[in-house]
Amino acid sequence: MDRVRLAGLYGVDVTYRPAPETEIAVPEDTVVAVLAALGVDASTPRAVKDALAAYEQRATHRLLSPCTVIRSGESLPRPPSGTRLTVAGHGTTAPQAPGRYTLRAEAADGRTATGDLIVAPRRLPGPPGRTFGFMAQLYSTLSSRSWGMGDLGDLADLAAWSGRTLGAGFLQINPLHAAVPGHPTDPSPYSPSSRRFRDPVYLRIEEVPEYAYLSPDGREQTEALLRRAAVLRESVLLKDALIDRDAVWALKAEALALLRQVPLSPGRRAAYADFLAEQGQALDDHATWSALAELHGPDWHSWPAGLRDPRSAQVARARSEHLDRVDFHCWLAWLTDGQLGAAQQAAKDAGMPVGIVHDLAVGVNPSGSDAWAMQDVLAAGMSVGAPPDAFNSRGQDWGLPPWRPDALAATGYAPYRDLISRMLRHAGGLRMDHVMGLFRLWWVPQGRPPTEGTYVRYDAGAMLGLLALEAYEAGAVVIGEDLGTVEPGVREELSGRGILGTSVLWFERDYQRADGKPGDRRPLPPSAWREFCLATATTHDLPSTAARLTGEHVGLRHRLGLLTRPLAEEQAEDAAEVAEWIALLGRLGMLPEGAADEEAVVKAVHRFLARTPARMVGVWLPDGVGDRRPQNLPGTSTEYPNWRLPLAGPDGTPMTLEELAASPRLHALADEVRRALAES
């Protein structure tokens, strides 16, 4: 029982529920391993007693946490007996205005302590009014000007066009996090090297200001690269072709080396110096890792021992020896930041009330930049995943090291606050992948299957409060991806803070009646949907609407050996579910009688979404042109070209951004959504 108590003090669960009526005990070895990753020895009864005593001693003598988070209107926390709390400039009263303050504790015995006081807004306001927008995978949306994959110039253009022409209020995109270089590079945007910095592969070379001032020789070499880029782009636009980000980066790296030779003007030099000063240690670390990865490979665990510690003398010496290359990577971050800012400005200039919605992955690749630089706040030997459930009896291991909740608290949540701030720097909104991770995460000890993991809990009040304050100050909306297994109370807590959830049409069914008894799984009518959500027909991990309606996604999974039941059984169940939704659309008068063709049903589906009270309605961009292929097929790696497909029409022929903008089908769908929103 002592070990159970110790685990509880550190937020480590010893049981979990894969279903409400089932409770499973976590293996004892897992609990011991997870506690060890938190710096707690629980391997023997004596070690457990010592750990409990040490915890209680710290709790008894601690006057103040490094960071205290409250909501506007709340009182200061109750201090230990005989201790007085004051806020700089506010006395003993909690400030009402959201912001950052300094909290001071004075004990009767003369001891003092100071820490941060975060006053979060009571509730985020959400988007102004109801709005619709597009959800796009930027790499897949290439134009006649991009170099084989969509780039930040395309992002600005797509935002400007969809805002001005179609009245879109936002544009949600995939994570643009810096990738871990490789041969080939992992194309998944959800296993990045760094979440704090963006990938320069998205740069639009011709929009770097120094491009206009290339020397004659540099101009000639760059024009040769442009011709090679055109060949690469045309090869990607062939039917069944794939995006090759390594080939794109090889060309851009050559071009950037030429641009690097152009001296910065005095004004540009001053702006770069300001950027370096503003970004500080985080950028220095990322650029250093990038330079060292070029020399020693992309996995820092295999580097010479002295280089594995970012604060070592050897790293400082290597940084000095390779200063030009470190500065090159700092310069890339600056250029990328500038083009990100230009894209958001283009969105706002186009009248978008929200603008660009960036996506925050749930974690980082263990071999990459952030994992190297932040070893003190990430749990070594652990990875994030998901427990077994009705859809995956083996559970999931995503291979991403989790935050250590104890280390985050000890730093006043500085790494987390910094990450959120950076993500919101040029954003009108932020999508939080697996937002449930702010409450708890499933930790899987290295070498064990996902079934032998356990949940570790975080201070959700602090995590949500810090997120809300950053979003409040940035004037941004926050969307939580809360699909899958969601602990009771999580959605209510998110909604109470003005954080939008994610509702996907095919999952919105009457699973439970108002009296708490099981429902009959009928599709939910629009009036029963929640208001504070992003309502969509699909996501990047799900079939496009066209594929869903035709059943092509079942055939694809069958061909890849992913079905767990006979094909005919899967097809019958899928067809029945689709038929239920089509019947509901017909009863609601959203699908004209006899109009059961694919495009008509896609329009009806989106009219339905607009009829719900959802504050934001998301249109998956491939749905606008009839693309039948999923961008990512969970459960596959080499079997399917995840994250490498260019946007395509119904027959699989890729489409440029220019062709997309001229698509009658996309215009008609946007008109339907806009009209339905206006009528609702």
Q: What layout of secondary structure does this protein have?
A:
Layout: H1 2-9, E1 15-19, E2 22-25, H2 28-37, H3 45-61, E3 67-71, E4 83-87, E5 99-107, E6 112-120, E7 131-136, H4 152-166, E8 170-173, E9 177-178, E10 194-198, H5 216-236, H6 245-259, H7 266-296, H8 313-321, H9 323-349, E11 355-360, H10 369-373, E12 382-386, E13 396-400, H11 405-410, H12 414-423, E14 429-432, E15 440-445, E16 454-457, H13 460-474, E17 477-480, H14 490-496, E18 501-504, E19 533-536, H15 545-550, H16 552-559, H17 567-587, H18 598-611, E20 616-620, H19 657-661, H20 664-679
Parallel strand pairs: 3-6, 7-8, 7-20, 8-11, 11-14, 14-17, 18-19, 19-20
Antiparallel strand pairs: 1-2, 4-5, 5-6, 9-10, 12-13, 12-15, 15-16
Helix pairs in contact: 1-3, 4-9, 5-6, 7-9, 12-13, 18-20
Could you estimate the helical fraction of the residues in percent?
Answer: 25-40%
Which CATH C-level class of the largest domain is it?
Answer: Alpha Beta
Q: What does the overall shape look like?
A: globular
Provide the number of structural domains.
Answer: 3
**Multimeric status of the protein:** single chain
CATH level 3 topology of the largest domain:
TIM Barrel
Percent in strands:
5-15%
Short description:
This protein has 680 residues and is an alpha/beta fold. It has helices at 2-9, 28-37, 45-61, 152-166, 216-236, 245-259, 266-296, 313-321, 323-349, 369-373, 405-410, 414-423, 460-474, 490-496, 545-550, 552-559, 567-587, 598-611, 657-661, 664-679; strands spanning 15-19, 22-25, 67-71, 83-87, 99-107, 112-120, 131-136, 170-173, 177-178, 194-198, 355-360, 382-386, 396-400, 429-432, 440-445, 454-457, 477-480, 501-504, 533-536, 616-620.
